[in-house]
Amino acid sequence: MVAVQGKVQREPQREWVLLTYRFPREPSTPRIAHWRALKRLGAAQVRDGVAALPLDTRTREHLEWLADAVLEAGGMAQVWIARLASVGDERRLVDQMRGEAAREFRNFIAAVSAAVQQRGSDQRRSVSALRRELRQIMSRDYFRVAERAEAERSFRALLGRVEAVA
Amino acid sequence: MKWATRRECHVDRAACAWLIQRFIDPAAEFVFVDDPAKVPADATPFDMRGVPLSHHQGDCSFETFLRRYGLRDTGLWKIAEIVHEADLDDNRYDAPEAPGLDSLIRGLALRFKDAPLLGVTNLLFDALYGLQQPAALQRRERL
Fold it and tell me: DSSP state, B38?
C-alpha cells in the first residue's frame, strides 16, 4: 500500500494505453520507423511487441496511428486501454519511465555544458539543436521529473551567455 | 457535403477542417464522433483510423488531403510542414512555427468545444496562409 496525499492507495489509479504489435519478417524499414516513433513518444517497451504510455488523447491517438502503420506494413497490431493490477507494478513502470526521462535530461545538461565552451556559429548551431531537443524530451517527460527544471535552467543560462557575447 | 472526424480536435484535424472549408467544400458540415463505427453513412470520414483521408506512410492527414486532392499550392505545403511537425514532431521538416501553433491550439481546445474551436482555428490557418501569399496580395485592406 502506498500513501498518496494522506490517503492510503489500494488500487492503481492510472490508465494506460498499450500497443501490441507484430511485424512481418521483411521489410525492416517500417519496423525501424516504428521503433523511432516509440522512442520519440517515450513509450515504455514492456516487452517485445508491447509498448505502454500513460493514457491521454494525444498518446492514444499516436499509438492508434502507429497501429495503423503496422497494419499497413502487413503486420498485426492492437491498441488497448489498460490498468495495472497492483500499485507496486504501476510504481515500477512509472519509476522506469521517470528514470529514462531523468537520464535524458542529464545527458541534455551535459550537452549544454559542452555548448557553453563553444563560440560563434558552432555555438549558435548547438543552441538551436538543443532548443529542439529540450522540447522533445519535455514532451515525453510524462511524470515531470526533478531534472526537468534543472535542464530548463541550464539552457536558459546558456542563452544568457550567447546574448552576452553577441 | 458531410464530413466526419473524431472528437477533441487538435492541430491536424483543425487544419484538415480549414482546408476542406477553404479549398474543397465551402458548404462543409462537420460531425464529431468518438468511434469510427459511428460515422454517419452520408459523411466522409477523415483523420480517423482505417480511413483513406488519414495518416499514411509517415504523412499526417493534412498532407494526405493535399496529395489526394492534387493541391500543389506552395502556401498549402508550407502549412503542411508546420502541421506535420506540430502533430508528429519527427524532424521531417524545419518548421519553427510548429511548437507555437501546437500550444495555441491545445490551449484553445481547453476553452472551446469542437465546432466553435474550428471557427477560431480557421482564423489561425487563414493567417498562416496569408503570410505565404505574394506581397501584392498581402496588401489588401484590413478589417
Answer: G
Residue with grid cell 512509472, as numbered in its chain: A94
Q: B90 and A36 in contact by Cβ < 8 A? A: yes
Residue A154 CB contacts under 8 Å (≥ 6 apart), including other chains: A108, A109, A112, A113
Query: With an 8 Å Cβ cutoff, is B52 touching chain A?
Result: no
* A20 vs A57: CA distance, rounded Å: 18
B89–A40: do the CB atoms touch at under 8 Å? yes
* pTM, to two decimals: 0.86
CA A110-A112-A118 angle, 5° bins? 115
Q: Do A67 and B55 touch (CB under 8 A)?
A: no
How are strands ordered across the β-sheet holding B2-6?
A: B29-33, B2-6, B43-45
Q: Do A68 and B90 touch (CB under 8 A)?
A: no
Separation CA A78–CA A64 (nearest Å): 8
Find, in chain B, the residue whose alpha carbon is nearest to that of A58: B10
**pLDDT at residue number A8:** 59
Give B26-51 pLDDT, tens digit per residue. 999 999 998 889 999 999 999 999 89
Query: What is the chain B residue with the closest CA to A62?
Result: B88
The long-range contacts involving A8-13, CB below 8 angstroms and separated by at least 24 positions, are A9/A87, A10/A87, A11/A87, A12/A83, A12/A84, A12/A85, A12/A86, A12/A87, A12/A89, A12/A90
Instruction: Give the ipTM of the model, two decimals please.
Output: 0.83
List CB contacts (< 8 A) between A137 and chain B.
none
- Tell me if B89 and A69 make a contact (CB, 8 A cut-off): no
Express each pLDDT in B91-131 by its tens digit: 899 999 999 999 999 999 999 999 999 999 999 999 999 99
Q: How far is CA B93 from CA A62, A68, A137, A154, B103, in A?
A: 19, 22, 18, 27, 18
